[in-house]
Amino acid sequence: MLRVDSIDQRIVSQLVADARSSYAEIGKVVGLSAPAVKRRVDRLLDKGVLRGFTAVVDPEALGWGTEAFVEVRYRGNVSPGQIRASLEPLPEVVAAYTVSGAADAIVHLRAADIHHLEDALERLRGVDMIDRTVSTVVLSTLLERSPTPEPRP
């Protein structure tokens, strides 16, 4: 595991706040030259601390404002790879996690509206290996943020 120092943490914080920041802009904040920031960012990418840069999209603005979390229970022993393979064909599945407890996985679904969500849930329940689902529809998002690399107090 790569150890990141306080400068690396501050670079990552700047990129989380605005991934479009130039190396020179980041350098001004952290006290390094643009080439030094680039070397550090390249190292953080090579070591997997940074996995890439992306645009953050508002799903509601794209017409996918209805969401639910679904506990999924599979029949028998099912590997994480099999769970992933069973969920990948469903475009409404935006994230899935193996979990401890009664469920085998938690699935995050997004849909255009409640009717689309119902259709997606029916297709999910139709997956051969799935035994049972328990759905929770999201009413509002109270907090959503990226993890901060700053050390906790």
What's the pLDDT, averaged over the residues?
92
Structural class: alpha+beta
- Cα gyration radius (Å): 20 Å
The share of residues in helices is 25-40%
- Count of the separate structural domains: 2
CATH architecture identity of the largest domain:
2-Layer Sandwich
Under CATH, the topology of the largest domain is which?
A: Alpha-Beta Plaits
> How many beta-strand segments?
4
Give an account of the 3D structure:
This protein has 153 residues and is an alpha+beta fold. The chain has 2 domains: 6-47, Winged helix-like DNA-binding domain superfamily/Winged helix DNA-binding domain (Arc Repressor Mutant, subunit A, Orthogonal Bundle), CATH 1.10.10.10; 59-138, Lrp/AsnC effector binding domain/regulation of amino acid metabolism (RAM) domain (Alpha-Beta Plaits, 2-Layer Sandwich). The protein is built from 5 helices and 4 strands. The protein has helices spanning 6-17, 23-30, 34-46, 80-87, 114-125, and strands at residues 66-74, 93-98, 105-111, 130-137. The model has no long low-confidence stretch (mean pLDDT 92).
